[in-house]
Write a structure and sequence with these properties.
Chain A: Pfam families: Fer2, Fer2_2. The complex is a heterodimer of chains A (214) and B (339). Chain A contains eight helices and five strands. Chain A is an alpha+beta fold. Classes of the chains: A alpha+beta (214), B alpha+beta (339).
């Protein structure tokens, strides 16, 4: 991108036409050398800021009750945004391909795989992670589902647990926890390699039968 | 994942206009298939047009049936009271597909647009004609890895027994599309040259010599909605999905059945199969045979035999030649029994 240096400073130079020429030629160079994002940026007169323009885009999203204004690369997934940029590491990266459910979070109240969600698509949405499941946050009292997972030994290594709990809470809220069979079906998107399934089902049924507000 | 340009649009017109400006542009809906393919660099878009903010998620009753917006989430469609009441086969099929999380993300249009695929398509080190088409001028973003078909003569347990070609034997994995094919749905699309309606059976295609093309959409066309005509099948619908585990797995074979029964007689019937072809596979001959017949096991067996005309195994999937007719018979029994 050294070409952009040729466009000179911001002041009105006497050789304005020369400056325009360089500006246009540098835009052409950018067209030839860079991805289409750069072309749009150039077309919008942002030639000095081309690199930044295609690397970062603005995102406004509410995460665990806090409105965030962020600048992110469009290719960043919601999972990577949460973990790498916001350091909300409660949400886990398992398969990173939507097959294991370890990355499950709620977007506008719906459970989704954050690994297959481009963060840019959450513009204007509300995201809830395991850290925001209760009003007190990570340092406050446990959620009834978290209590139940402890009571029923619903985990061994614990890696899938945040995803299991986010999914389990949604499972009850959706009205899909009326029987162990239904829970097994509607929790099938969360894999537990330790094999705590029986205890996870017990935990969910316990919360459901207990009638606690989830 | 490669870098790409990201554009968010809020109207269908803007979406069509945006995608028409260059090769290598893809619509992004739920992303459950596209983002996955991008992570593996099977698809390498230059630009994504995010259509998630398009106002196309309505499910409504029309004079002729149901209209489902292309951006309606799979879970929303499955839970819709209208869908449950008028086209329960669609609810059954949707709930048999993917996981609760994926159904919350995936849209109706995106479900249709998910790639017909197999493990060779996903592995850029392995040969695949769908991913790496032979001819020049192929779609951009699909030129990774060696050509050929790894599945023919390879690991092909999941693969097609109908309508395959020497270029590709992959199957379309959708459950939803089996129901829509059975129910004679039509697809409303909008494109640079205007709007048109595609019968569901013509939407997806067989591989032939161009396996890189999964469907008959023209460049720049956007799916707006799906229409399902009014029918009399609500009381006798069944979706049978046979798979390696009880939930969250692709079908080895699936059968969608919708019947209009009068006492023991089949007045009208729709049959479609999944997991067996490059597209949802309608069983027209079996339907014709069963129309006006009584619901007996003998008739079901005869229908299943007719349905298997032209079936061909590729080795590891030979078991489907037995599993498919048995599944048809089983699904017919269940569908004709339900109250």
């Amino acid at each position: 991108m050294a070409e952009y240096e040729n466009t000179g400073g911001k002041s009105e130079a006497p050789n304005a036409s020369r400056r325009v020429f360089f500006k246009q030629s540098s835009a052409l160079a950018a067209l030839a050398m860079t991805p289409p994002a750069a072309m749009t940026a150039v077309a919008n007169g942002l030639d000095e800021k081309v690199a930044a323009a295609f690397e970062q885009m603005p995102l406004h999203v509410e995460i665990n009750g806090t409105m965030r204004t962020l600048a992110i690369e469009p290719r960043v997934t919601l999972l990577d945004l949460l973990r790498e940029q916001l350091h909300l590491t409660g949400t886990k990266k398992g398969c990173d391909h939507g097959q294991c459910g370890a990355c499950t979070v709620h977007v506008d109240g719906q459970r989704v795989n954050s690994c297959l969600t481009l963060a840019m698509t959450t513009e204007g949405s509300q995201v809830t992670t395991i850290e925001g499941l209760t009003p007190g946050g990570p340092d406050g009292p446990l959620h009834p589902m978290q209590e139940a997972f402890i009571k029923h030994d619903g985990f061994q290594c614990g890696y899938c647990t945040p995803g299991q709990i986010m999914s389990a809470v949604a499972c009850i809220r959706e009205g899909h926890a009326d029987s162990p069979e239904e829970v097994r079906e509607y929790m099938s998107g969360n894999i537990c390699r330790c094999g705590a399934y029986a205890n996870i089902v017990d935990a969910i049924m316990d919360v459901k039968k207990g009638g606690a507000r989830v | 994942m490669n870098q790409f340009q990201y554009t968010r649009v809020t109207t269908p017109k803007a979406a069509v206009s945006a995608i028409s400006t260059g090769n290598g542009s893809y619509f992004l809906a739920g992303g459950t298939n596209l983002i996955d393919l991008m992570k593996r660099e099977v698809v390498v878009p230059e630009r994504l047009i995010d259509i998630n903010k398009l106002p196309l998620a309505t499910i409504e009753k029309t004079a002729t049936g149901l209209r489902i917006g292309a951006m309606a989430k799979n879970s929303a469609v499955a839970e819709s009271e209208l869908v449950k009441k008028y086209v329960p086969l669609l609810t059954m099929a949707l709930n048999a597909g993917a996981s609760a999380q994926l159904r919350n993300m995936a849209t109706v249009g995106g479900n249709m647009m998910q790639r017909t695929r197999c493990a060779y398509f996903y592995d850029t080190a392995m040969p695949c004609n769908k991913r790496s088409p032979v001819q020049a001028g192929a779609d951009k973003g699909q030129t990774n890895g060696p050509v050929g078909c790894g599945a023919i003569g390879g690991i092909n347990r999941m693969h097609a027994i109908f309508g395959a070609s020497t270029k590709c034997i992959a199957v379309h994995p959708s459950d939803m599309c089996i129901a829509l094919a059975a129910l004679d749905a039509t697809v409303n699309v909008s494109g640079p040259k205007g709007d048109r309606t595609i019968p569901f059976g013509d939407f997806h295609r067989l591989p032939g010599d161009t396996p890189q093309k999964d469907n008959t959409l023209l460049p720049g066309e956007l799916i707006m909605s799906v229409d399902i005509p009014t029918n009399k099948f609500a009381d006798h619908s069944h979706y049978l999905k046979v798979r390696d585990r009880a939930s969250y797995a692709f079908a080895l074979v699936s059968v969608g059945v919708a019947v209009d029964m009068k006492r023991d007689t089949i007045q009208d019937i729709r049959l479609a199969m999944g997991g067996v072809a490059h597209k949802p596979w309608r069983l027209i001959e079996a339907e014709q045979f069963l129309r006006g017949k009584s619901a007996t096991e003998a008739n079901f067996k005869q229908a299943a035999m007719l349905a298997m005309n032209g079936a061909k195994g590729y080795g590891e999937n030979d078991f489907k030649l037995t599993l498919a007719p048995n599944s048809i018979i089983d699904a017919l029994k269940t569908a004709t029994k339900t109250a």
